[in-house]
Amino acid sequence: NWTTANVVDEQVALVREQVGKKRAICGLSGGVDSAVAAALVQKAIGSQLTCVYVDHGLMRKGETEQVEKDFVAATGVQLRVVDAQERFLAALAGVSDPEQKRKIIGREFIRVFEQAQAEIVAEAGAEGEDVAFLVQGTLYPDVVESGGGAGTANIKSHHNVGGLPDDIEFALVEPLRKLFKDEVRMVGQQLGLPDEIVQRQPFPGPGLGIRIVGEVTRDRLDLLREADAIAREELTAAGLDREIWQCPVVLLADVRSVGVQGDGRTYGHPIVLRPVSSEDAMTADWTRMPYDVLAKISTRITNEVADVNRVVLDVTSKPPGTIEWE
Ligand code: XMP
After folding, report:
1. Alpha-carbon dihedral sign for residues 27, 80, 13, 128
2. What b-and-e string marks burial along 72-102, b requiring 16 or more CB atoms within 10 Å of the CB?
3. What ranges do the domains of the chain cover?
4. Helix, strand, coil percentages, rounded to 5, for the chain
5. What region holds the GMPS ATP-PPase domain (predicted)?
6. Domain 211-313 classified CATH 2.40.37.20?
7. At 125, is the pLDDT very low, low, confident or very high (cuts 50, 70, 90)?
8. Does CATH number 3.40.50.620 belong to domain 4-198?
9. Confidence (pLDDT) at 123
10. Longest C-alpha distance within the chain, in Å?
């Protein structure tokens, strides 16, 4: 019978069997899935696990610091933070196509993990001792939507499934591959992770890179980070964090519209707010959220974020829209 305790016991045994005495690394993204996967694998193999947090520069404001602080405090796991901002920006330069972005991000993640693996082996001085395993927080919906399920089409390549490069040499450890998000949260609770981690809203591994419609540049990322921080601050202040499943904030970097501010004409970019309600992210509805909260977010973003002169609300369900724009 399905209980979180049974799931944990079963997966701990499977991971032990798969990894044996070798080492594993786990890509930590700051999200619920990778945190729960890491905690589960840590329970199974303890110090044979090293977590690697890749700062790809596509994170939201404060996210990197939060992972460094909260997750290590909660689990005591060995964490390695890699600053890979330049590398990801260079790889994404000139690319606007969503699937291409996803593939590039998925590939760069793996290249960074390979480097970390080599360093860990070198530091341990364990000649010939392998870090052969990569732990990922892949969920059932990620597999299905990347075209991995029977009879399913590829809707978008999730960075840790369809976005993986072909020449990957790691064996994957994916203890959450059969679970939905709500189940993963329960498993996280069972493992003793705090609410700040378990109840976090989903945030995609490719981060803000798939929330800029158009080419990803440093300036655009900075701009979107500001707008996103304002939206999150106001949603939290309004007490809507639990009611809303997640609220992507999207920059339409290739679109401009005319506006007026002060005495002058502006010609800036629109920001899209995409608040959704969902059970498992497979389907979703747009959240009917209070107008006054929307008004406040809109006023603040257009006042405080340079080059943004319009805020629009996405009122599309999934289907036909997906939650993220790319
Ligand atoms: P979509 O846009 O497919 O999103 O409706 C469904 C859920 O998955 C998240 N998402 C991702 N998560 N890597 C992730 O870790 C990805 O590549 C990815 N793409 C989408 C999205 O935020 C939503 O919660």
Report:
1. positive
2. eebbebbbeebebbebbbebbeebeebeebb
3. 4-198, 211-313
4. 45, 20, 40
5. 2-200
6. no
7. confident
8. yes
9. 85
10. 69
- pLDDT at residue 152 greater than cutoff 70: no
The neighbouring-strand residues paired with 267 are 258
For the ranges 76-80, 115-119, 257-261, the maximum mean pLDDT occurs at 257-261
The closest-lying atom of ligand 1 relative to the alpha carbon of residue 248 is 22
Q: Distances in Å between the alpha carbon of 123 and those of 49, 118, 163, 179, 196?
A: 14, 9, 30, 35, 33
From the CA of 102, give the closest atom in ligand 1: 17
Residue type, 195: D
Write down the mean pLDDT value for the chain. Answer: 94
The rounded Å distance from CA 139 to ligand 1 centre is 10
CA of 322 to the centre of ligand 1 (A): 9
Question: What confidence tens digit (pLDDT) does each residue in 183-194 have?
Answer: 999 999 999 999
Q: Is 72 annotated as a binding residue?
A: no
pTM: 0.94
- How confident is the model over 256-274, as a mean pLDDT? 97
For residue 85, give both structure tokens: 């901002």
Whether residue 253 has pLDDT greater than 80: yes
The letter for the amino acid at 234 is: E
Q: Which ligand 1 atom sits closest to the C-alpha of 163?
A: 17
What confidence category does residue 122 fall into, taking pLDDT thresholds of 50, 70 and 90? confident
Cα 244 to Cα 285: distance, rounded to the nearest angstrom? 10
Look at residue 37 and give its three-state secondary structure. helix
Ligand 1: residues within 6 Å at CB? 102, 145, 156, 158-159, 202, 204-206, 246, 281, 318, 322-324
